[in-house]
Amino acid sequence: MIDLIVGVSAPRQAALQKANQPVPPGIPARFLVDTGASNTVIDPAILNQLHLTPTGIMAAHTPSTAGVPQHIQQFDVSLAIAHATLTRYFHALPVAACQLKIQGFDGLLGRDVLRECLLIYTGPDNAFILSI
User: Fold this and answer.
1) Looking at CB atoms within 10 Å, which of 21, 44, 47, 49 has the fewest?
2) Neighbouring C-beta atoms of residue 98, cutoff 10 Å
3) pTM above 0.85, yes or no
4) What per-residue confidence (pLDDT) applies to 131?
5) Is 101 helix (H, G, I), strand (E, B) or coil?
6) Which of 9-30 are b and which e, b meaning 16 or more Cβ less than 10 Å from the residue's Cβ?
């Protein structure tokens, strides 16, 4: 698990500021690092707190869809991976919406983000290092 900050995308923030509308603050969220997920996925409860509307539809394949894609709403967000000395920002990241809170986390951190980082998993310690 990793703690991240989810916010509105940079283009959405700019549009809100231009219209003199308030920008929702970023929301702390707990993500499961998922090397099997092509894309990052976020629970709709987080997206609703940011007052986001869908930007499209994403076709998703999961083990339970048996080769038939499931159509899921797509949203654009910003994501911040914060550390004591460095923060890595993803300013406009398309993500899928899926109910995850019931499983005890807010999102899946997929390979769309992980490919921009160095991930080291140490099996005997059941731990990982994510270098941003």
Assistant:
1) 21
2) 17
3) yes
4) 85
5) helix
6) bbebbeeeeeeeeeeeebbebe
Please list the ranges in the chain whose pLDDT falls under 70: none
Q: Name 41's bridge partners.
A: 96, 108
Residue 38 neighbours by CB distance under 10 Å: 13
Phi, psi of 48 (to 5 degrees): -65, -40
Say which residues have a Cβ less than 8 Å from residue 15's Cβ, sequence separation at least 6.
none
Q: In 3-state terms, what secondary structure has residue 17?
A: helix
CA gap 31, 47 in Å, rounded:
14
Nearest to 111 by CA among 127, 91, 126, 96: 96
Q: Which two structure tokens, joined as six digits, stand for 128?
A: 């990982």
CA angle (81 as vertex; 79, 87 as ends), nearest 5: 110
